[in-house]
From TrEMBL, chain A:
<dbReference type="InterPro" id="IPR006131">
    <property type="entry name" value="Asp_carbamoyltransf_Asp/Orn-bd"/>
</dbReference>
<feature type="binding site">
    <location>
        <position position="116"/>
    </location>
    <ligand>
        <name>carbamoyl phosphate</name>
    </ligand>
</feature>
<feature type="domain" description="Aspartate/ornithine carbamoyltransferase Asp/Orn-binding">
    <location>
        <begin position="166"/>
        <end position="312"/>
    </location>
</feature>
<dbReference type="Pfam" id="PF00185">
    <property type="entry name" value="OTCace"/>
</dbReference>
<feature type="binding site">
    <location>
        <position position="66"/>
    </location>
    <ligand>
        <name>carbamoyl phosphate</name>
    </ligand>
</feature>
<feature type="binding site">
    <location>
        <position position="67"/>
    </location>
    <ligand>
        <name>carbamoyl phosphate</name>
    </ligand>
</feature>
<comment type="subunit">
    <text>Heterododecamer (2C3:3R2) of six catalytic PyrB chains organized as two trimers (C3), and six regulatory PyrI chains organized as three dimers (R2).</text>
</comment>
<comment type="pathway">
    <text>Pyrimidine metabolism; UMP biosynthesis via de novo pathway; (S)-dihydroorotate from bicarbonate: step 2/3.</text>
</comment>
<dbReference type="GO" id="GO:0004070">
    <property type="term" value="F:aspartate carbamoyltransferase activity"/>
</dbReference>
From TrEMBL, chain B:
<protein>
    <submittedName>
        <fullName>Dihydroorotase</fullName>
        <ecNumber>3.5.2.3</ecNumber>
    </submittedName>
</protein>
<keyword id="KW-0665">Pyrimidine biosynthesis</keyword>
<dbReference type="InterPro" id="IPR032466">
    <property type="entry name" value="Metal_Hydrolase"/>
</dbReference>
<dbReference type="InterPro" id="IPR004722">
    <property type="entry name" value="DHOase"/>
</dbReference>
<dbReference type="InterPro" id="IPR050138">
    <property type="entry name" value="DHOase/Allantoinase_Hydrolase"/>
</dbReference>
<dbReference type="Pfam" id="PF12890">
    <property type="entry name" value="DHOase"/>
</dbReference>
<dbReference type="InterPro" id="IPR011059">
    <property type="entry name" value="Metal-dep_hydrolase_composite"/>
</dbReference>
<dbReference type="InterPro" id="IPR024403">
    <property type="entry name" value="DHOase_cat"/>
</dbReference>
<keyword id="KW-0378">Hydrolase</keyword>
Amino acid sequence: MTRHIQLTEQGKLKHFLTIEGLDKELLTEILDTAESFAGMSEHQVKKVPLLRGKTIVNLFFENSTRTRTTFELAATRLSADVLSMNIATSATSKGESLLDTIHNLEAMHVDMFVVRHALSGAAHFIAQHTAPHISVINAGDGQHAHPTQAMLDMFTIRQHKKQFVGLKVAIVGDILHSRVARSQILALNTLGVSEVRVIAPKTLLPAQVKTMGVIPMHDMDEGLDDVDVVIMLRLQKERMNSAFLPSESEFFRCFGLTEAKLKRAKADAIVMHPGPINRGVEIASSVADGPQSVILQQVSNGVAVRMAIMSMAMHSQGGVA
Amino acid sequence: MNKILIKNGRVIDPANNIDAIGSVCIAGGKIVSVLEQAADFTAEQTIDANGQIVCPGFVDFSVRLREPGHTQKGNILSETRAALSAGVTSLCLPPDTKPCIDSPAVVEFIKDKAEKADYPNLYSIGALTQRLGGSELSAMFALKQAGCIAVSNASEPLGNLLILRRAMEYAATHDLLLMYRANEPALSGKGCAHEGAVASRYGLPGIPEAAESIALAQCLELAELTGCRVHISQISCKQSVIKLQQAKKYGLNVTADVAIHQLHLTEDNITPFDSNYHVLPPLRSAIDRQYLREGLVNGTIDAICSDHQPHDLDAKLGAFPETEAGVAALETLLPLTLALTQQHRIGLLQAIASLTCKPAQILGLASGTLKPGSAADVCIFDPQASWQVNRDNWLSAGCNTPYWQQTLTGRVTHTLLAGKVVYGLAELP
């Protein structure tokens, strides 16, 4: 059903809500399309007219700077008109007000919603209730999914490693609360890496993490041994408050990425982070700014990957110039 | 009063171990005879129940009528009509109305409405604590005097174990049954799904089994300490079944029910984010479901209830975690119970017992049986009749069921309340 709601009858991307249910061919198509956009930012004219006349609404019910900005930039480079809305939500905000917002914007004849929301399932909900000609792109829903982030990470991995087969990838940190990690795990497994390890204390792993197609580990030295890619996750400060962890310093001691720990990985291993970084909490500055870090490339790649996803979703709706 | 003859039906009365083709004679609102017809009985009304099953009206441990206080979701009229159409003639009403049932006035309000003709038997469950706040005991004696059949704190937490202990002691003082929804709030938190594979994958806040089984274990310990009669409401997991089984074997006077949806659905059904599957306690794993089914067969679980919770549309419109929990379940209770007998090794007699005489015995009601002399609350249903769950076949104000648009088998054709036909499928427009 997840597949059904995201794809047209011809199997083309209509909404982009989660990696679940999408096959290797489609993910590869996204990466290939992004590749064709990637060179564009170096051009004098950074625009293509693919989405000219289309209106894209960034609907952010949760704060974000980087994700929103790259979506805006991606839409602008596709020549779409962009409207960004930050809608502060409270815990008591009701579904009806969310739907009312959606229906009001629909009445203004928009073509695409890019949605970020604090609750898992919000993007699915909007996709299920929006008019059929509108595409919904999930820019992060609760702890469920952040599929465009996962795809820009896959893009970055492919840039450096050329292919996915045979790769060993370690994802380190707060897996439990991470929509990024959930989407990365699905994408990595779909693209055929040989191993996905998740390294975290048990308090920060989902209860049934083994059913997610990963190898759970609790020791960095063992977990980073011989890996090709290290993905560090951001640790939210509020995790100290509800007995997930004793302190930032103890977390850094056990799970922070230092130069010494990184030596366990392959010599050409790359270090990734979805940002924003907590230096000295999950990653040492010398690693974040070091030669193996590709963190800023991830940010640059975000624009091309989002251009690819937006143009593909609009294309399947039949409205692309 | 009307003399009614129900003839040619398959009469099932688990309380008296009856399962045979025959008639049921009713006069003066009471059952006169079962299987044989007294020579001097002349019926004024005859119902031919050929091919149908005739059994006692169902006794349901948990039905939210939503009145007073939440009438946008349903009301006494709409939900009791739904109950009668589903063969449910005795309903226990949890105290979480608004205002809640913590004073005789609210009990009287419901009773007054119920007495206005043809309503099923409504039994208020009194609040265990004032305003369901979990800290001060309610006036249980006054509630009992007003007609409350039991006390419970519904889904609201109690402040601490001392309050539960005192509440049990006080309830036992007045010989009140204490109904308990086992849930340790510190462990369930803001969870909205079983802490299993689906919640892990979907990033939904999870509720571990231990949130239920720890609270259950504490409650059982205190039941032994205080001697209070305890009924555990709507258990959902394997560990609860095991703990109850041990307690019963040990001789503790404890009973339990399960919501019908827990015997059919699992966490896998909620994908992707279908709020009609948002229930509390959450739908759990297939293993838990298996234990619940076995618990029903071996008697660890005494009764099946609908745990009927109608909602307005808005309550279910939203991202999964923010939607309200609960299923409108009265009208699917019978077909889903029958499906259990067909698909699994639960006998029809036992299944009907878990809807009739077993809950009645726990509640101390004389109903739930066709014994001559008892009130003629009777359900007649066609076990083969298929029907689609849709607006035309649905009386509850809440359409929040995972079975919407699905075709189910087994349908009530007549419901009799104190010897009067209060629902007849054929007479519907």
